[in-house]
Design goal:
By secondary structure, the chain is an alpha+beta fold. It has two domains: 1-213, Thrombin, subunit H (Beta Barrel); 221-314, PDZ domain (Pdz3 Domain). It is built from six helices and 20 strands. It has a six-stranded antiparallel barrel with strand order 1-2-3-6-5-4. A hairpin with a 5-residue loop joins strand 4 and strand 5 (80-89).
């Protein structure tokens, strides 16, 4: 006899419910591009976008729109509308679009800072404007920094969510949702096949989104390091009253972090006198008022505390 409900049934019900709720709120994007390559077909960049306001604003990846100013958004109900690019921020890989026509009701934005490793998440995209694309998995890691390259320029997408939910071609810019269908991240496929990454929806990215809607751009300070959370030795845990800091895994050559003398292996403890435990703690300092200003950073290096002064530069487009 088959049980009335197995764990697989419950899992399937959650995923199906999230898919049913969000698929219609995720658009398929066609963005004209002047050059081929990078996943573009026939002079177009293909991606997804999430409706997040009732008056036609969409959220997607900056790398999906590139340098384009407009394109077409299509929805699962068969409707489509032209859109304009309101603004894009390459450091967070976020872009805000606005459609000229009617859009479906907006998705609810959640809070990525409440995610835990092992939590169920569902990735919803609309790569070809058909019935949508849905995959599910768990949060594999939090607080990652993702290095990306555009030609000779290096960009670091900070504080990303890593998941084993597979991302299909064209899913960049789609929704990463929790079990309540709240959008906790915007999927980005720039990490490569087989590795799911998403830009979190949290206090810092909400500030970025609001600034893009208001000003069309975000002036960002740039340090140039890749980091992952790392544990503090027991004596430092007692001294600082916390368990972790940020381990520097890569320093971009010639960057402000490099000029300040930061090294791979350093464990960041404080920046601007504030605790640094996750990538967002550093990222929330990297806005316009930090550009060109001294930034005091304390790290642990080879068992000793080392103070350095960095001077963040302004992030400029490639």
């Amino acid at each position: 006899m088959v049980a009335d409900q197995s764990p697989l049934d419950a899992y399937s019900q959650v995923v199906a419910g999230v898919a049913a709720h969000l698929t219609g709120k995720v658009a398929s994007l066609r963005v004209p591009q002047s050059r081929s390559g990078g996943g573009r077909r026939g002079g177009e960049s293909l991606g997804s976008a999430v409706v997040f306001t009732s008056d036609g604003f969409l959220l997607t990846n900056a790398h999906v729109v590139g340098n384009a100013q407009s394109g077409t958004a299509s929805f699962a109900d068969g409707t489509s509308a032209p859109f304009t690019v309101v603004g894009a921020d390459p450091l967070s890989d976020l872009a805000v679009l606005r459609t000229a026509g009617t859009t479906p009701a907006p998705a609810e934005l959640g809070e990525a800072d409440q995610l835990v490793v092992g939590q169920l998440v569902v990735a919803v995209g609309n790569p070809l404007g058909l019935a949508g694309s849905v995959t599910a998995g768990v949060v594999s890691a939090l607080g990652r920094s993702l290095p990306t390259r555009s030609g000779a320029a290096v960009r670091l997408i900070e504080d990303v969510i890593q998941t084993d939910a597979a991302l299909n071609p064209g899913n960049s810019g789609g929704a990463l949702a929790d079990s309540q269908a709240r959008v906790v991240g915007i999927n980005t496929a720039v990490a490569g096949v087989g590795l799911g990454m998403a830009v979190p929806v949290n206090e810092t990215t909400r500030r970025i989104i609001s600034t893009l809607m208001r000003d069309g751009k975000v002036r960002r300070a740039y340090l140039g390091l890749v980091s992952v959370p790392g544990p503090l030795p027991a004596p430092l845990q007692e001294r600082f009253g916390r368990l972790s800091g940020l381990r520097v895994s890569e320093v971009v050559p010639g960057s402000p972090a490099d000029r300040a003398g930061l090294r791979a292996g350093d464990l960041l403890l404080t920046a601007a006198g504030k605790p640094v435990e996750k990538a967002q703690d550093l990222q929330r300092l990297m806005f316009a008022d930090a550009i060109g200003q001294p930034l005091a950073i304390t790290v642990m290096r080879n068992g000793a505390l080392v103070d350095v002064i960095a001077q963040p530069s302004e992030l400029v487009a490639a």
